[in-house]
Amino acid sequence: MIHVVGHTAIDHILRVPRFPERNCSTFVSDHQVFFGGGAANIAAGIARLGAPVTLVSAVGEDFAGSEYEGWLRDLGVATRFFIVPGKHTPTAFVFTDEKGDQITYFEWGASGTFARQEAPALDHVHLATADPDFNVRVAEKGRSVSFDPGQDIIWYSADQVRRILARIRILFANRHEMEHLTRILEMEREAIIARVPVVVVTMDTEGSVLYTGGREHRIPVVPVKAVDPTGAGDAYRAGFLAATHRGHSPLTACRVGATTASFVVEKAGCQTNLPDWSRMAARFWTHFGDLPLPNGGE
């Protein structure tokens, strides 16, 4: 069982021609509402790919009986929720400009309870965006831990990051988050990579890079007609974790992640176009060749 810890949210996806300067405005050309939250996106992707997953998250009293609750149940996502009376489920407002750059405003809502909750002891756990202190405590109790700070990296102290890095075997970050990590820790990028057995850095349209065993592997993107980049990183992580659960190597898992992400960007919404394993495998074959047998090397 894979446990994913972090936010469940309602996503408001808005498109703007460009981000305004301070004290100025711009117009919104499109506004859609979807199921979201980094941890929930990853859990949904893992379940769609056929791996067992539990979502450890915080929701408001508005979540029970909602369409979102039914969606997760139908996907087969087990849930371990902190339900907070008087609070609503977190809400994300994601603005994307014509260049594909994004700015997110996140209303924590029920997620504020993470700081007050006792951390569970979990065997296989992925730490997505959530309260930094809660993630530290989960990491220190976990047996096999992966970490994805996401845009919440700005809330982590150097001590919190060091404590998590000391416990994890996989680190996920995009290029911007890696820059934040170097500043927070006052360390070179190479020194951070050397501290974790498996590091995956995603780089938008330039693909991703896997660092493991002292080697660097570059994984290209799977080219598709992209409609909305929101959720691509979460889908990548879902694909990687589902592939790892099946026994695939980190390199194959990265390629599965890239393939899974290619589906998500084809439609707006982080959970709108998640592939099952057979759809993913068919596209994988087109771009990377035969999917290696689990535990069979490359």
Give an overview in words.
This protein is an alpha/beta fold and about 300 residues long. The protein has 9 helices and 13 strands. It has helices at about 40-50, 65-75, 130-140, 160-165, 175-185, 190-195, 230-245, 250-265, 275-290, and strands spanning about 1-5, 10-15, 30-35, 55-60, 80-85, 90-95, 100-105, 125, 145, 170-175, 200, 210, 215-220. The strands form 2 sheets. It has a 9-stranded mixed β-sheet with strand order 5-4-1-8-9-10-11-12-13, sandwiched between helices. The chain is globular. The two termini are about 25 Å apart. The model has no long low-confidence stretch (mean pLDDT about 95).
Structural class: alpha/beta
Low-pLDDT regions:
none
Question: Could you tell me the strand content as a percent range?
Answer: 15-25%
Oligomer: single chain
Radius of gyration, whole Å:
18 Å
Strand line-up across the major sheet: 5-4-1-8-9-10-11-12-13
Largest sheet: 9 strands, mixed
Number of DSSP E strands: 13
The helix count comes to 9
Mean pLDDT: 94
Query: Which descriptor suits the 3D outline?
Result: globular
| Residues in helix, % | 25-40%
Spatial gap, N to C terminus: 25 Å
H/E order of the elements? EEEHEHEEEEHEHEHHEEEHHH
